[in-house]
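Handoff note, outgoing to incoming analyst
You'll be picking up this chain. Sequence as last confirmed:
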Amino acid sequence: MPKAKTTTTTKQLCVRCPDHPSADSFSHQNDFAKCLKQYPTTPVPIKNKQGLDTGESKGAKYTANELWWGFNDGPNTLDLSDASVCKELLEVAKAAGSKHQYQLNMSDAEEQIWYTKTVDAKQQAVFQDVPITKGMLEEAVMKVYAPKTEAEKKVEKDRKKQEAALKKNAIVDAVKNTAQSLKRTESTDAVNTSAMGQSGDLQYRPNPGSTSDPSATNRTDDSNGNSDGDHSDKQLSQQTGGAGDDKDSDGNQAGNVSQKAVPATAISFTRYCPANQSHRNQKGTTDMPHQVPTPQTRPLDDPPAHNQLRAFTAAIPAIQQDHASLVSAAVHLQESDTTSKQPLEYHELRDCLATLNDSYQVLSNHFTVTIPKDKALFEYHVLGMPDKVTRPKRRVLILDMIECDQTLYANRQSIVTDYRKKIISYVPLFTDDQVTAGTDVAQVAVPNYNPGTRDQPMTQALTLRFVARHDLNGLRDFVAGRDESYKDSGAAEAMNIVIAKAVADGSPDTFQVGNNRFYYRPGWKDLQNQSDVESSGLVGIRGYYSAIKPAMGAVLLNVNTVTSAFYKAQTLDKYLDHFYKFGWFPGDPQNSRITHPIESYRLLEKAQKHLSGLRVWVDFERSQPGDQDNAIDSPNRRTKTLAELGTYPQFQQFPDEAGQSVSVWKHITKKYPQAVKQGDDEYPTGNVGRKAPGPRKYYLARQLKVLSDQMYRGFPLPPDVTASMIDIARRRPDANYRAILGEGVASLGLHNASLPPMLQGLGISISRNMIRLPARMITNPKIMYKRDFNGINVTTGQWRVNRNTQFLNTVHGFSGLSTKGVATVQFFKPRGRMEYDQHKEKYLINWYNMHNLNGIQKTQALNASKPYEEISNWDEDSLKQYFQKFQGKLHLAILIFPNQSKENRERYATFKIVMDQHLGMKSICFNETKMVKSLRNFNPARDVMMDGALVDYIRNIAMKLNLRCGNFNHTVRQQDLPKIGGSTCSTMILGADVTHPGSGSLRGTPSIAAVVGSIDNQFGLLPASMRLNPPRQEIIADMEQMVYERLAAWSANNNQTLPASILYYRDGVGDSMYATVRATELLHIRSAWDKLCKQRYPNQTLPKLKLTAVVVTKRHHTRLYPRNMAGPREGNPLMTKSGNCPPGTVVDSGITSPYYFDFYLQSHNILQGSAKPAHYFVLENGMGFTAQELQDLTYSLCHTYGKSTTAVSYAPPAYYADRLCERGRLYLKPLLDGAQQHRNLTEAQIWTLAEGFFYRGGGAVQRGNPWHAAHEGKMFWM
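Most recent structure output, in case you need it:
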């Protein structure tokens, strides 16, 4: 009989046989079925090669006594509850107890006695405080794994099903009851005005329980989605405080938006989660405390709504415990099987709300969507499209399919399409609604006109396949709190397509881009400017975004303003006229206009990139007398795609109908003389066929008109165009508010007395008013600088510092490890005159007068006789060689660019590559135009610049430089950092982001990932790691190693200890990636911590790492508006001067998830335009933050951004990572810009080239980070 092990194994072995000599090689860890098969204890039948029994058997490999059942070694405590199989076994053993039927034999008993009395045993083997014997385990194995009869199996299956149902009902029962109390009453304007005063919004508020109807909690929805027994007008008036009594916290009448404010839709909303059960006003909020009745005044029976709320409060611990067990099991499974690709589907449940009442309310650009019961959408896909078909062609084919098929055409009022592949219907097509998904229900032959077929149609066979039936009851149950497990498999997207149809039918001035964006043709402005060739023919068009959003208590429609760049509807020659302002194309027939050949080809390349792929219209009649093809001028046949620009028509050759080579000019002037005008030969031709060697088809430039509604594709936009776009899009909140409720709602068809037919057919109704939400205003933190013990107050998201304000940390100077002494500085500039050359000496005086600003190291000129060094050659090798002569002499290089032209941006990138990667020198760049514009009321052509005029600009420079030296500027008080503040440092904050190549980048260009991490309890300095990431992959591939580097830096700064907890802010992840981030990146954070832990403490066991992970997103369309948009701005604590909600406004209900822990926080102030709140979604909360703690902490951190004296728009750790990714893009600039010389490389070659660019520095490859070793540990990219 084998002896029990006394050494600790590093593997979790099979509970049945951990003491077997070959146990370490077992592949069936925690798998009893495999264990029984591999090590049977009964005779095994012998089978032949065909798998048939031979009638013989072989003896068991081991007897039962030779296999040790279920005791861990080490401390001898049986604790295997993380493995579901083990847990089931142990629970059966525990239930069996001492009355088990299994008869211990002598060897078993002796072994049990030996085991429990051995010297190494510290306690008896137990499970959930119950001693477990070997016999109990063997009895449990017999019960669990003994073969069952069919009747026993059915009983067991029914039992488990019943238990699962009871468990699920217990978790969501209170939520379901709460959701059933939600009431949607959209009354007449007069009733709403009486109930809500002048409020022009829809309100979420705690239900005061104005009805005593005991059946209120059991009301069911009727077929129109309304509750049986809705409040009467009188009850509604009582709920809202009587006619005209709805006032805000200042006693002002609520919602006085304008004289034309529309009445509100009232919603009685019972909270899903109370903030805390003590009903006290928490620190850092302007909310009024709950009014809790005293025992003398408490009614005998609370209204039903309050009973539901209290029931949910009581259910929270059970919900959290059950949810936590699911998460724990999933995490354990993920950790034990690192090869698994199955993402974790569980996130942090919301256990409370930080917003206690409705004393502070805001509006949000969401509209409630009411969906009747028992409605469904049917989704079909169109298959069989030609290869490489364009979107316009795909649209034509799908429309032709609908017209050609009798059933589709007959149901055309009941179907919508995205014109890509989906067709959505609210009635089943061809068959009943029980048809199996994946069934092909129709085949339709449609005409297909292809280039090169001489306009003769071919037949394209398209197939319609039934894909899914989207039961909208599931969506209704999900938002109402009745079904947390609901996973949207396409219902929301299908509803978006339905709404898109309503928009398309609602206004002839509206056009659609994708499923969610709609643009208003009359709302355009010209973007073409004289300074940028690539702005040719561009216009900015105002539009609207709309999308269905499942939220807390309701399905919402999110509507927001958008502005995008489009191509103007004009002939091709008009576009080329703008290019001619910058030069001429190769082969220009007028020799006097020929420019340098290289520049001509570059100009042609830019024109090709700008115009190729656009849809164009043949802008003349091509039909000739006697032609048999009468359809040649039909709209479909006149719509073409511009494949490329040709050369001038006199020189452009192509094969005519007879196959003879002929010039375009000769062919068109002969065949279509009426369509030719003087000067048409001065522009290149346009090929609307295919590129060579395919069939080509040329027209003159003036004969092709670019069609409207085509979005600009050459992102990023040119800088001047971007500035113009920002000016167009930057509108005050009240202007956006009015636009959404006016033009936006009209575009969606919601302003009509009746909704569009498609929505009517579904029975869907959409509120015409924005929702009103309870919000909370977080108390501002205090800002801490050196020797400022009381802290500086924050006012509207900003604070003031002066010359005497000292940065909190200035240990490291420009010249090395100390700020003592004087550092040498040299100013550089491009050769030639500066933008404001008359002020260039004043720039120097301003710098040297401020050289000790805020405590940074004093500086002096390297060469006083030559204040400016001029740079002539800007290629990388020349610039590197030029600055090498300054190494060892120069501590800080200051380069002044006159403006932000494209040429100077190229120079900036090369300069930073040399300084960051090759030489490791400290540097800073000044933008002369910005520097001068920072002076108020200063005319650079007329006024004289004072010696101290640039103090604000140089202070901003000083903040950057202090960070680049390895210091930090300021922080907030420790008491403003819930859970992580204090004199000792036990928490590390991580931030991460990934940036991807754009549409113009070379195929195979890598993405770039960055991770930053704090090193102390000030959270002001966050050094970083950066790596190449697989192309367009959002998940960080080298996460473990980068986190390991950040942990090592933290440990080196904290006496070689490790952080007990990590707070992780992840930037820019869409909700579809949440589970994957949790399954990979969070696992890698733990792995990195474990790796360093084993190295630092090889013989110790540390407490498990506490990890809280939060995804922060800015790319969304949720906006918050002050409730009283027409109120005064000066001195109004509920509105900034720009008309936005004040910084610190947080919303965690109404527009948030029905179940999970998320919130919207507007942390910053802006001077112009509408502020965008950041959305925070908690993936995991191992640190145990309450809603208020995490919101307050995040808001405080937004005040720690190192180079600003204002609060930033989202958590700085994620912001820093984003900025570092932007710096990394400079290193790959040729690939990201789609450099012509690299376009023929394969993806593997592109990756190799990217590595060469990324690791220019000599030892960078070995370190992993792409910058020079001198920059390690410093935030040089800020």
